[in-house]
Amino acid sequence: MQQRRGIWYGVTAYVIWGLSPIFWNAIEDVPALELLAHRVLWSIPLLLLVIAVRHRWSILRHAYASRRTVVVAAVSGILVGINWGVFVWAATSGHIVDASLGYYINPLVSVALGVVVLREHLTIGARIAVGIAAVGVAVMAISIGVVPWVSLTLAFAFGFYGLMKKRPDAAPPIEGLLGETVTVAVPLAVVVVLLTANGDSSFGTTTTTSVLLALGGAVTVVPLLLFGGAAQRIPLSMVGLLQYLTPTIQLIIGVTLYDETMSGGRVFGFVMVWIALAVYTADSLRNARRARMVAGPVGS
Predict the structure, then answer these.
(1) How far apart are CA 228 and CA 54, in angstroms?
(2) What angle is formed at CA 237 by the lines to CA 88 and CA 103, rounded to 5 degrees?
(3) Is 299 domain-assigned?
(4) DSSP assigned state of 258
(5) Residue range 19-40: average pLDDT?
(6) Which residues contact 127 (CB under 8 A, 6 or more apart)?
(7) Is residue 130 part of a domain?
(8) From CA 107, how far away is CA 83, in angstroms rounded?
(9) Secondary structure of residue 244 in the 3-state scheme
(10) Taking the chain, what is the end-to-end CA distance rounded to the nearest angstrom?
(11) Which domain covers residue 273, as residue numbers?
(12) In this predicted structure, what is the pLDDT of residue 236?
């Protein structure tokens, strides 16, 4: 029962993330920086509400009693802020396909960062997968004449964000996300104030725009909470497989709903990344199966 609920939590989270470009395009006339500002600012009251409902005030106070935790939250906030900002810009500027590629690449970037930064052991299958993905991205950059900076920024920003969340002095997920949003909320609040003072604020221009800007907080927080619930209930390998729902949905949306083009070089890059992901997934499942076979007799 718990696993089934976890699967539904995970699927729902990844589907929301996958469909999110449609939401952001509904308010594409709002500048990306202002979209990011409202996305962050409206997330804070929602997170405070969750903490209040779950009676986690003492956990929040304890978490941020450490200066190291504050620093981790600040750095994580900058990284996730970059990720959110670039994604919002990409979703509203005709680069949804590039964003989807970024989230396809992200797991492989995380693997590479784990080896380089954390000195984790990399299996032969994982090395092959990272190499194939690197070739695909390189060929894509050469063929289209431009480095796919949207894809790489999203992948590496979220990859480094994952590294920060692995630190032992990182706050628990909900409290950590609150600290991260508060970090980037300060400069973004200044942006909103200046826009309002100059009469350039989009909030309040129409009821629809105002409501959608406010809902940006829910679009940000709800899938993160669902993802957290899924991670607690289902194996990490299953979470890893489900995560490909998001870029797949985004790719389909970008090509079918918003008429984004798939040039030959871009198609080649995607195919190479898909092959890399297939190799990496098969290698991960094989290693997990071996680990279970080794652990089986011990636990019996």
Answers:
(1) 14
(2) 20
(3) no
(4) S
(5) 94
(6) none
(7) yes
(8) 15
(9) coil
(10) 24
(11) 2-290
(12) 60
What are the phi and psi torsion angles at 206 (to 5°)? -140, 155
- Answer yes or no: is 296 within a domain: no
Q: Is the dihedral of CA 271, 273, 275, 278 positive or negative?
A: negative
Residue located via tokens 């990496």: 280
Average pLDDT over all residues of the chain? 87
Question: How many domains in the chain?
Answer: 1
pLDDT digits (tens, 9 = 90+) for 154-187: 999 988 988 888 888 888 888 999 999 999 999 9
> Residue 26's closest CA among 210, 182, 171?
210
pLDDT tens readout for residues 59-90: 999 999 999 999 999 999 999 999 999 999 99
- Integer Cα distance of 128 and 272 in angstroms: 12
Max Cα distance, the chain (Å): 70
% residues pLDDT > 90 (the chain): 47
Query: Which residue has 């063929």 as its token pair?
Result: 143
Asked whether residue 264 is domain-assigned, the answer is: yes
Question: Between these two residues, 2 and 201, which has the higher pLDDT value?
Answer: 201
Please tell me the distance from the alpha carbon of residue 263 to that of residue 265, in angstroms, as a whole number. 5
- The three-state secondary structure class of 75 is helix
Token duo for residue 62:
């304890």
Q: What is the 3-state secondary structure (H, E, C) of 36-58?
A: HHHHHHCHHHHHHHHHHHCCCHH
Using an 8 Å Cβ cutoff, are 230 and 4 in contact? no
Distance CA 204, CA 198 (A): 14
